[in-house]
Design goal:
CATH superfamily of the largest domain in chain B: Thiolase/Chalcone synthase
Distance between the termini of chain B: 17 Å
Strand content of chain B: 15-25%
Strand content of chain A: 15-25%
Largest interface: A-B, 57 and 56 residues
Largest sheet of chain A: 8 strands, mixed
Helix content of chain A: 25-40%
CATH class of the largest domain in chain B: Alpha Beta
Shape of chain A: globular
Number of domains of chain B: 2
CATH architecture of the largest domain in chain B: 3-Layer(aba) Sandwich
Oligomer: heterodimer
């Protein structure tokens, strides 16, 4: 029998604003670029986490989304070896790929850097989130042409029904230059928090309603 | 009872050839495809696909579409896999999963080229094969290929899909060569996985494809997937765990799913990149899992590290080892160079086996493991 699963908390980041469960909780002026917005969002968390400053923009976006989301969840109560991180987007790590490419395309001006190159993989954002929170369960980064609620649902359903996964951070983390959006959610077997039954329709609804704002 | 995941057909393309049989012959003869290669004003040791051979193979297909090198390789590898079976993958019961780290990375030289987007590349190939379902692209560093096989197994096991084709690959590029070089992770000689004189990776290019199905087609489809898992070290984004904990958890979970003990594993196809830290970490994880006496090899000495292709190409090599009861030399290995004992294959040998293990680890702290079984 298939398990009942719930979306217990969710977090959107777009247009220089962060929403938790549909409610805006942090906002910056539209004139701010991504880099200053995400820095303000980090300051607002009152953390001292030096690794944040080394991250590329995609990792910063995913990290900030997860940190705001985790303010709603007691991570001490979960089994971190049975917690999965399943993320997806459409541009992969192209934003940082272009930076590395520009550093090598001209041999007269050749300066590849390991600190940039390491971010030319989209799953590094999963690594950053796992390191911060000591999460050690299943992890996968998927690429799709567009946000596909049906695929995300299919993957989550398979994950919970065929592995020992008990909870999962899932969602869409997309960034290319100044265009970005993040929609992260927490999936649990127990109807905690918002307790929205996990379905493709509910994922689609939660994703698109925020886009209309 | 859950459906079983049968390996129906496969194909390997790399410097060693355009089909699996050519690879097996090379493995038996300890023949490496790694050669010196000049670019970026330096000499690198890499495993590169023969361009003339690729051109000839591609022309045989008579495809009018304009396709990049990687797209050609994917189409060739999938076509060669499908030609071995009557299974049709065009229905709603079939899925394609791609595994790649960089896709059409050579396309970056052309400004605003949409084909550098992995989802677009995957859809182009999916439409070529007239598949109705949206493709999945797994881009999870060097575990992508192994993870694609694990996920294919889960989809089949849960009854979601009947047929899943997994195809994985990456091409050699200045992009990855310069990047790994900036990490000082490249070996200036043919690589030596697990050896005391190992100094790093040789990059390679290649594509591997496997068709899995819940329905056994013919009697000799004797290989099934019995379990698989992925984990994260939660330790460092560019260095493996110092203890091997993440890889150990992945191995343990796959053995638990397969309901087997360490002594039932006949052979391990390790990741074995030949970097000092990676190989050391693997040795610790294998010891932790009580697999230190099980014969193991790394195929990196034959075809280099093919990134998104590695997990699938090496899974095929492991499956073929299991099917044929043959173990291939871990090329480049002479003297043990890890702190814990492991049984690295110094010579070809035959061995009757029922279960084999394939593992992978990558940047971002990720690990994956899969168990194959022979009925």
């Amino acid at each position: 029998m298939k398990k009942s699963l719930y979306i217990t908390q969710y977090c959107h980041i777009q247009n220089n604003c962060i929403w938790i469960n549909g409610e805006p909780i942090f906002q910056e002026g539209d004139s701010e670029n991504f880099s200053s917005f995400i820095k303000s969002a980090y300051k607002n968390l009152n953390q001292k986490y030096a690794k944040f400053h080394k991250m590329d923009p995609l990792c910063k976006l995913g990290y900030i989304g997860s940190e705001y989301l985790f303010q709603q969840i007691n991570l001490d109560e979960i089994d971190k070896r049975k917690t999965a991180v399943y993320l997806s987007n459409s541009s992969s790590s192209l934003d940082t790929d272009l930076k590395h490419h520009n550093s090598i395309a001209d041999l007269e001006n050749y300066f590849p850097s390991p600190a940039i190159f390491v971010y030319t993989l989209p799953n590094i954002v999963i690594g950053e989130i796992c390191i911060k929170n000591k999460i050690q369960g299943e992890n996968a980064f998927y690429i799709f042409e567009n946000f596909l609620a049906v695929k995300q649902f299919e993957q989550l359903e398979m994950l919970f029904n065929t592995t020992n996964t008990k909870s999962c951070l899932g969602g869409w983390v997309e960034l290319l230059d100044e265009t970005y959006e993040s929609f992260l959610y927490w999936i649990d077997e127990n109807p905690n928090g918002e307790a929205i039954p996990l379905s493709a329709d509910h994922l689609e609804y939660l994703y698109t309603t925020k886009k209309l704002l | 009872m859950n459906p079983s995941t049968h390996m129906i057909a496969n194909n390997m393309i790399s410097s060693l050839g355009f089909n699996t049989e050519e690879h097996i012959t090379a493995f038996k003869e300890s023949k490496s495809g790694i050669q010196a290669y000049e670019t970026l004003g330096e000499t690198f040791y890499v495993s590169a696909i023969n361009e003339n051979h690729l051109k000839a193979e591609w022309e045989k297909l008579q495809i009018k579409k304009n396709c990049s090198k990687l797209e050609q390789l994917f189409i060739l590898s999938i076509s060669k896999t499908l030609s071995q079976t009557p299974i049709s993958i065009t229905g709603e019961d079939s899925l394609i999963i791609f595994s790649t780290t960089k896709g059409n990375i050579d396309g970056l030289y052309k400004k605003n080229n949409p084909m550098v987007l992995l989802g677009k590349m995957a859809n182009k190939i999916r439409y070529h094969f007239k598949m109705v379902n949206n493709p999945e692209v797994i881009s999870t560093a060097c575990i992508s290929g192994t993870l694609a096989c694990v996920i294919a197994h889960r989809y089949i096991q849960s009854g979601k899909y009947k047929n899943v084709i997994v195809t994985g690959g990456d091409i050699l590029s200045d992009f990855t060569l310069s990047g790994f070089n900036s990490f000082k992770a490249l070996s200036s000689k043919p690589c030596k996985p697990f050896d005391k004189n190992r100094t790093g990776v040789n990059l390679g290019e290649g594509v591997g494809t496997i068709l899995f199905s819940s329905e056994k087609q013919v009697k000799n489809n004797s290989i099934t997937v019995k379990g698989g898992a992925s984990t994260n070290d939660a330790n460092h984004i560019s260095g493996p765990s110092r203890t091997g904990d993440g890889l150990f958890y992945a191995i343990q979970e796959s053995m638990d799913q397969a309901e087997i003990n360490a002594d039932q594993i006949g052979y391990i196809s390790a990741h074995g990149t030949a970097t000092p830290y990676n190989d050391e970490m693997e040795a610790k994880a294998f010891n932790w899992a009580k697999l230190q006496d099980v014969p193991l090899n790394s195929f990196k000495g034959y075809i280099g590290h093919t990134l998104g292709g590695a997990g699938i190409l090496e899974a095929i090599a492991a499956i073929e080892s299991l099917e044929r009861n043959e173990l291939y030399t871990s090329l480049g290995f002479e003297d043990i160079g890890v702190s814990q004992p492991i049984n690295v294959l110094k010579a070809y040998q035959s061995k009757k086996m029922n279960f084999v293990l394939k593992t992978a680890s990558g940047f971002g702290g990720c690990n994956a493991s899969i168990v194959f079984h022979k009925e």
